[in-house]
Amino acid sequence: xxxxxxxxxxxxxxxxxxxxxxxxxxxxxxxxxxxxxxxxxxxxxxxxxxxxxxxxxxxxxxxxxxxxxxxxxxxxxxxxxxxxxxxxxxxxxxxxxxxxxxxxxxxxxxxxxxxxxxxxxxxxxxxxxxxxxxxxxxxxxxxxxxxxxxxxxxxxxxxxxxxxxxxxxxxxxxxxxxxxxxxxxxxxxxxxxxxxxxxxxxxxxxxxxxxxxxxxxxxxxxxxxxxxxxxxxxxxxxxxxxxxxxxxxxxxxxxxxxxxxxxxxxxxxxxxxxxxxxxxxxxxxxxxxxxxxxxxxxxxxxxxxxxxxxxxxxxxxxxxx
Amino acid sequence: xxxxxxxxxxxxxxxxxxxxxxxxxxxxxxxxxxxxxxxxxxxxxxxxxxxxxxxxxxxxxxxxxxxxxxxxxxxxxxxxxxxxxxxxxxxxxxxxxxxxxxxxxxxxxxxxxxxxxxxxxxxxxxxxxxxxxxxxxxxxxxxxxxxxxxxxxxxxxxxxxxxxxxxxxxxxxxxxxxxxxxxxxxxxxxxxxxxxxxxxxxxxxxxxxxxxxxxxxxxxxxxxxxxxxxxxxxxxxxxxxxxxxxxxx
Lengths: 321, 249
Known about the structure:
The structure holds two protein chains of two kinds.
Chain A: H1 2-22, H2 25-50, H3 58-75, H4 80-102, H5 107-127, H6 129-132, E1 145-146, E2 149-150, H7 154-176, H8 179-189, H9 191-195, H10 201-227, H11 237-250, H12 255-271, H13 279-293, H14 297-320
Antiparallel strand pairs in A: 1-2
Helix pairs in contact in A: 1-7, 2-7, 2-10, 2-11, 2-12, 3-4, 3-5, 3-10, 4-10, 11-12, 11-13, 12-14
Chain B: E1 2-13, E2 16-27, E3 31-36, H1 42-49, E4 57-62, E5 65-66, H2 72-78, E6 80-83, H3 95-102, H4 104-108, H5 113-126, H6 128-132, H7 143-155, E7 161-165, H8 173-190, E8 193-198, H9 201-207, E9 210-215, E10 218-224, H10 225-230, H11 232-238, H12 243-248
Parallel strand pairs in B: 3-8, 3-9, 6-7, 7-8
Antiparallel strand pairs in B: 1-2, 1-4, 4-5, 9-10
Helix pairs in contact in B: 3-7
């Protein structure tokens, strides 16, 4: 655990000194979104990488956070922080309620059910025009502030988003190192074997599902207050697949991997502009290539390559002599 | 003292009537074995006891209290642990993580790290090979070691009653001997009561105090293990005795 904390402290130090190097501009703006996507990827990783339960509806929880925050603040004049916590509580309850029936399903069926949920929520965003503004979006969401500190610049947003993301990562690392984390991995491997050891698999799966939903919801609220304008297309099926790609590229069960995956897939589209609408084809290809050649994800794959290189180098030395 | 009493239970898999009016009992500190052919319902009895496949009618009393309506988690909490058929160790987890998972409910009860650590040492004493391999992934162990791990994992819950499902499955005779001798040790030292399901009827009957013979979901014989070893019907059907005589005829 101590090594784990040192690793985390190093990582946090790097993240928090980035703005000193990047110094504003477009890249810093993109890095804010890397932070938001990191939260979302970590949330999905808890569910998929540890408990082994797939969700293709993560974008819905993200969107619910954004819309609830937007509506409560812009339409009803709530304090943004109050709205954020209210949205998180509501989405947590909702996830709990739908988690019990949905998580009885396994594999493809679970994927279909969560996909269905995602689509329903997406349709609500689009069609409930009076409240959500429909396809043309929902403007005028106020920014966040603590006392006199307004999060109105990219730099301030960067620190707000990344502090939250780091806290969530710390929470996730802690959780996965605990008794609960062990039980989640056990459920992943064999639910029956976990149950006969006294692990309440059904409840634990719903709890981690709700936890994942709440994190996604918080990310949504932060997104809404940061960009101040939201529209349904951000929270569609496409984005759920993107999140899945982030987690798989980073590595199932690797918290830092999720951050790397989020960074890659957030920065990549900036370079994939040339592909325009075909970018989803590139994601698909990435998924296939990753699962075929690096099933453990980039972080683990890099470690394997590193070990291989270490083993090959001395061998070469001997060959020369 | 009677620890477990099973009264006229019926278990179904959908339409299939797997256990027909099965009754049996276990006394404190006993090793009791269930023998019978494939599909006789041996594993189903264990799964009914641990509530993995709930019974449809009948009664199961553990220390005098009915337990047939409880969840698997609650049953482990009461002191019944199952070692599932085919071992089912968590392959991507280390040996020690597997063992710690066995103490899941004890952690939840906040029993304290020291006492759980003591149990862990106890398991390592029973199975020194697990100590050597504690940092290894469970999936990299041999079949015999995985079986030891599965038993150790169940023991980490400090069960009063251990349900063992075919611990000899697919293992070399020497390894089977080793595992059976540990089962004998743990009943002697820890006072654990054992319900043992086995295909290897001979080895099981040598170890056990009593045995039940099952056929197509029904208990057909209940006797002391010694008597069952001598029983001609059992010898013919499960111990392969008369075969030789038939050849010689």
